[in-house]
Design brief:
It is a single chain. This protein is mainly α. The chain has a domain of 74 residues: 2-Layer Sandwich (Alpha-Beta Plaits). The chain contains 10 helices and 5 strands. Helix 5 packs antiparallel against helix 8. About 6% of the residues have low confidence.
């Protein structure tokens, strides 16, 4: 994170990275050291990476800037043909999730029929349809096709949840750092205003990512009973609108998001190929998401009424 000793141009580049939303798609870590900085970036797409290069290009002649990049190995679509065993039973055998993802229309082939027409003794023409038995192996073929569709939908669901999880954690961890820039006396008023504007946008995007995550994740849990229903109003707490209180709240949100992100990852990719029993007995993840959403809502409202130096 930039500090009061970081050259303003490097701080501006870091802010520009967040202002342009590159933090959403680029997994990048900035390390500041004296008059220079290092950026460790994992890139899965080229457009964001080119924008990052464009940001740091004007700095190369005046500052020591190093960009280290790794790219995930392409599998040429192999993931789409992996066997069922690659999906944890916690998801593949999750009846709630399968019920939600199941196709609305069945995959079974239409019945085999034979149309028979004959003329009776009175010269009248009659037509009727005879339903023929299914061909050998048709039921098995339909089951295989249904499994393929279910597996594809599970993969899409996992990608949505893990993507929202990563974005939620990224925004949550960024907001304390942005606030520190917004209230650091060593930086200019222009930089204070820019950092606060980016922080407010991150807070709004954080709320959206939490809600998207909550919506998708709830598909994997049984519908709560009256006794265990989640009450978001109870999770809300009022926070004083001061710069120090808001920074403390941002740090609390970041810590909660890191903890929740790890739990979500273990839910999707459990170490023992099954989900923690406590998570099935009670929707603890959903309760934690509600609590985080309540904090994020308080934070967003506090920012709207907070001015920078």
């Amino acid at each position: 994170m930039p500090n009061r000793d970081t050259p303003p141009k490097l701080v501006e580049a870091w802010l520009d990275f967040h202002r342009k939303g590159l933090c959403r798609n680029l997994d990048a870590v900035f390390a500041f050291d004296g008059q220079g900085m290092e950026i460790w970036c994992r890139s899965e797409e080229n457009s964001g990476y080119r924008k990052l290069q464009k940001i740091i290009k004007p700095l190369l002649n005046s500052h020591n800037v190093e960009l280290y990049t790794t790219r995930p190995t392409k599998n040429n679509g192999e993931n789409d043909t992996l066997p069922w065993e690659t999906i944890p039973p916690s998801l593949a055998e999750n009846s709630e999730l399968r019920s939600y993802l199941r196709p609305i229309a069945g995959l079974a082939d239409p019945p085999r029929v034979r149309v028979i027409t004959y003329i009776d003794e009175a010269g009248q023409t009659h037509t009727y349809t005879q339903v023929l038995p299914s061909l050998p192996g048709a039921a098995a073929a339909n089951a295989i096709a249904a499994n393929r569709v279910m597996r594809s939908r599970l993969i899409i669901w996992v990608k949505q949840v893990t993507g929202d999880n990563r974005i939620m954690r990224q925004y949550a961890e960024d907001i304390p750092e942005l606030l520190n820039i917004a209230f650091e006396p060593a930086f200019s008023a222009v930089m204070h205003k820019l950092a606060m504007g980016i922080c407010r946008k991150h807070a709004k995007d954080l709320m959206k990512s939490i809600r998207d995550l909550n919506k998708n994740l709830s598909r994997a849990f049984p519908k709560p009973s009256v006794k265990t229903s989640r009450n978001k109003k109870e999770a809300k707490k009022k926070h004083a609108i001061t710069s120090s209180a808001v920074i403390d709240l941002a740090s609390s949100i970041a810590a909660d998001a890191r903890n929740l992100s790890g739990r979500l990852y273990r839910f999707i990719y459990p170490s023992q190929h099954t989900v923690d029993l406590d998570e099935l007995k009670r929707p603890g993840l959903l309760v934690s998401l509600d609590a985080l959403e309540a904090k994020a809502s308080d934070f967003e409202q506090a920012l709207a009424n907070l001015s920078v130096p």
